[in-house]
Design a protein that fits this description.
The radius of gyration is 28 Å and the shape is elongated. The chain has helices spanning 72-81, 156-159, 266-271, and strands spanning 4-9, 26-30, 35-47, 53-70, 86-90, 96-110, 115-124, 127-129, 150-152, 171-175, 182-187, 190-193, 202-205, 210-214, 219-221, 224-231, 234-240, 246-253, 256-259, 264-265, 274-277, 282-291, 294-298, 302-305. Helix content is 7%, strand content 51%. With 306 residues, the protein is mostly beta strands.
Length: 306
């Protein structure tokens, strides 16, 4: 038998129930299966340089309806649920969803007022997603101990750390033209590879105040403008951003930053770039990277001469 579970609680006390500063929750089980009554999808976005629509925001809302035969106590409890600001539904597939709206309708009493037929309808909190299926579930944050700087395997700092003033315990990203980049820690007078060059690892570098993401080959600062080309008055800006993120090009004009060009996905930014028609002269750009619910900041400034 499938049961619908409803948990509900409030951020303040309600009707004599002590919720404030407590972890108390009410829970009810109903012998019913909710039917999907309506589903709406709303999209917002822009066209990229290739005239493809890029959804920067998509939300899905689902409305469910249930039919029940209730005793007076049950219908009273259902009405009381509506007074709470936190309602959680657990469906038969064990999926839990927060409820945005909850409404109960009494369709009439039967058997001398001992039971009633009622309908309750609830709207789940919207699900956010994008054209990139993994975008809504990503939250990139540094998961490794910080590093001081990026150096090469041929730099004086790496070759002669004691003579370069490297303190014991210091960590550096070390790049090598023939080997996979890795993080090294100077310990007891020797460099020790940390074997932390794993896809998805993120480390903060204090020298340039940026995070770096390992993509399987390199530690990449994000977001980052890596190149710019100019044809006439059209500048094409390319670079790198985190997987599943969006990139907005910005230009510094008149003492402030403003958005220019179309929003691009990370793969488009890396392979095709963001095109922007500008004027002759030197122009200062940066990019802003973000995904749904998360902001990954701005790249370093990049000057393009047109």
């Amino acid at each position: 038998m499938n049961y619908l579970s409803i948990s509900y609680w409030n951020s303040s006390d309600v009707g004599g129930m002590l919720y404030h500063n407590h972890a108390y929750k009410n829970r009810m089980y109903f012998d019913t299966t909710p039917a999907l009554f309506e589903e709406t999808v709303t999209e917002e976005g822009q066209e990229d340089a290739d005239k493809n629509f890029v959804a920067t925001f998509r939300k899905t809302q689902r409305v469910y309806k249930c039919d029940l035969v209730c005793t007076p106590e049950m219908i009273e409890a259902l009405y009381f649920i509506q007074q709470h600001d936190h309602i959680e539904i657990k469906l038969k597939n064990e999926e839990k969803q927060l409820v945005k709206d909850f409404a109960v309708t009494n369709d009439g009493w039967e058997f001398g007022g001992h039971v009633c037929r009622c309908t309750f309808q609830f709207t789940t909190q919207y699900i956010r997603s994008t054209a990139l299926a993994d975008n809504f579930k990503l939250n990139f944050t540094a998961n490794l101990s910080p590093c001081i700087d990026l150096i090469t395997s041929t730099s004086p700092t790496f070759i002669n750390p004691s003579g370069s003033g490297v303190a014991d315990g210091s960590r550096y990203i070390v790049t090598d033209p023939t080997l996979t980049d890795d993080i090294y820690q100077y310990t007891g007078g020797a460099w020790v590879a940390q074997n932390e060059a794993l896809i998805g690892n993120i480390v903060y570098v204090s020298h340039d105040l940026h995070n770096y993401y390992f993509d399987g080959a390199k530690w990449r600062q994000y977001p980052q403008i890596t190149s710019a080309s100019v044809a006439g008055f059209i500048a094409t800006i390319k670079g790198w951003s985190l997987p599943g993120t969006f990139v907005q090009l910005q230009e510094y004009v008149g003492g402030s930053w403003g958005n220019v060009g179309a929003v691009a996905t990370a793969p488009t930014f890396q392979s095709i770039g963001i095109k922007y028609t500008t004027t002759a002269g030197a122009h200062t750009f940066r990019v802003h990277a973000y995904s749904h619910g998360y902001d990954y900041g701005y790249s370093s400034n990049y000057v393009v001469n047109v």
